[in-house]
Write a structure and sequence with these properties.
single chain, seven-stranded mixed sheet, 12 helices, 10 strands, binds ligand LCMDX3IU, ClpP/crotonase-like_dom_sf
C-alpha cells in the first residue's frame, strides 16, 4: 500500500515548467520515503502547480480539477500547452485518477484560444514547434481515457472552444457576456481539419458548416441550442454541477466506458496521427504567408485598441 502510494506520489512530483514529456523515475527520492508516506496517508488531496496550470487531485473521488492560470486571458502559448500535456499525462498514468474537470482560474475567461503572438513575426521552426505542441495538447485531451468535463467559466473562443469540445461533457456559466465558438474565419484564417472534424462530430454537419464559415461565437443559451455545450448553469453552480456530472459518469465501470470512448474517437485521432507531419508542414506554409501574417497583425491591433 505504502509502496503504491509512493510510486503514485513520485509520478505526481512537480516537473519544472516548460519541460518535455519524459519518464520520471520512481526511485529518485529514497531519503524522503517515510515522510512522504506519512504525508500521503494523512491527506486525501494532492496538489501540484506549474507556471500556468494547477492541479488538485481528490484521491477519495479520483477526480482532478485542472485549472488554466495564465492571465489576462489564458491564451495558449507553447509553455502552457506543454505543461498541459505533461500534467494530463501524469494524471493519465495515475491509477488514483479517473476523471478530470478542466476549468479556468482567470475570472470571466475560460481560454482565449491559441496565443496569437506565437503565430506572428516568428520563424518557420518556431511555428512548426508551436503547432506540434498544439497537436500534442489535443491528442492527449481528446484521446484521454479518463472522464473529461469542461467547466466553462468564461469566454472560450477558437482554441479555447477546441479544448472544451475535446472533453466528454461541457457545462457553461449562464452569462450573456461569455461567448464560445470556432471564430477562426473572423481572424482571416482557416480552422485546421481536425478542429473542423471535432465540431462536426459534436454539433453535426449543417450547424458546423454554418458555424465555421461565419466564425460564429455563441452565447451560452445559443450554444446549448445547437449542442455545442451540454448544460448552461448559474455562474456559481458551474463547479458543483461539473462534480455532480463527473460522479454520475464515474458510476460506470471504467473498462466498458473507456473502450466505448476509444471506439468513438479513434478515427479522428488516427487521422491526425497519420497526417501529423503533413499538418505541421501545412500550418507552417500557411501561417508564413504575408496575407495571413497581415490578417493576424491587424486582428491583434484590433484587440489592443478595444482593450484601451
Ligand atoms: C488551407 C490550410 C489551412 C491550414 C490552417 C492551419 C492552421 C490555422 C491556424 C490557427 C488556428 C488558430 C486557433 C486560435 O485559437 S486563434 C486565437 C483566436 N482567439 C480569439 O479570437 C480571441 C481573441 N480575444 C478575445 O476575443 C478577447 O480577448 C476575450 C473575449 C478572450 C477577452 O476579452 P477581454 O475584454 O476580457 O480582454 P482583452 O482586453 O480583449 O484582452 C486582454 C489582453 O489579452 C490579449 N489577447 C486576447 N486574446 C489573445 C490571444 N488569443 N492571443 C494573444 N493575446 C491575446 C489582448 O490583446 C489584450 O492584450 P493587451 O492589450 O492587454 O496587451
Amino acid at each position: 500500500m505504502i509502496a503504491t502510494l509512493l510510486i503514485q506520489h513520485e509520478k505526481l512530483e512537480q516537473l519544472p515548467s516548460g519541460g518535455t514529456l519524459s519518464p520520471y523515475g520512481v526511485h529518485q527520492k529514497h531519503g524522503q520515503i517515510t515522510s512522504q508516506a506519512l504525508q500521503l496517508l494523512s491527506s486525501q488531496r494532492r496538489q501540484f502547480s506549474n507556471t500556468y496550470i494547477s492541479v488538485k487531485l481528490d484521491e477519495t473521488s479520483g477526480v482532478a480539477v485542472m485549472k488554466l492560470k495564465r492571465p489576462p486571458v489564458n491564451s495558449l502559448n507553447m509553455e502552457l500547452l506543454t505543461e498541459f500535456a505533461i500534467n494530463l499525462e501524469k494524471l493519465e498514468i495515475d491509477r488514483g485518477c479517473r476523471g478530470v474537470i478542466l476549468t479556468s482560474a482567470v475570472p470571466r475567461i475560460f481560454s482565449a484560444g491559441l496565443d496569437i503572438t506565437e503565430m506572428c513575426g516568428k520563424n518557420a521552426d518556431h511555428y512548426g514547434e508551436f503547432w506540434r505542441a498544439v497537436q500534442e495538447m489535443w491528442l492527449k485531451l481528446y484521446g484521454s481515457s479518463m472522464v473529461t468535463i469542461a467547466a466553462i467559466n468564461g469566454s472560450s473562443p477558437a482554441g479555447g472552444c477546441l479544448m472544451a469540445l475535446s472533453c466528454d461533457y461541457r457545462i457553461i456559466a449562464n452569462n450573456k457576456k461569455y461567448t464560445i465558438g470556432l471564430n477562426e474565419t473572423q481572424l482571416g484564417i482557416v480552422a485546421p481539419f481536425w478542429f473542423k472534424d471535432i465540431i462536426t462530430e459534436v454539433i453535426g454537419h449543417r450547424a458546423a458548416e454554418r458555424s465555421l464559415q461565419l466564425g460564429m461565437l455563441y452565447s451560452p443559451t445559443d450554444a446549448l441550442k445547437i449542442g455545442l455545450v451540454d448544460e448552461v448553469v448559474a455562474e456559481d453552480k458551474v463547479q458543483s454541477t461539473a462534480s455532480a456530472v463527473m460522479a454520475q459518469w464515474l458510476t460506470l465501470p471504467d473498462h466498458a466506458r473507456q473502450i466505448t470512448k476509444s471506439m468513438m474517437r479513434k478515427p479522428s485521432l488516427d487521422r491526425l496521427v497519420t497526417h501529423r507531419e503533413a499538418d505541421i508542414t501545412n500550418f507552417v506554409s500557411y501561417i508564413t504567408r504575408d496575407s495571413i501574417q497581415k490578417s493576424l497583425q491587424m486582428y491583434m491591433e484590433m484587440l489592443k485598441k478595444k482593450g484601451r
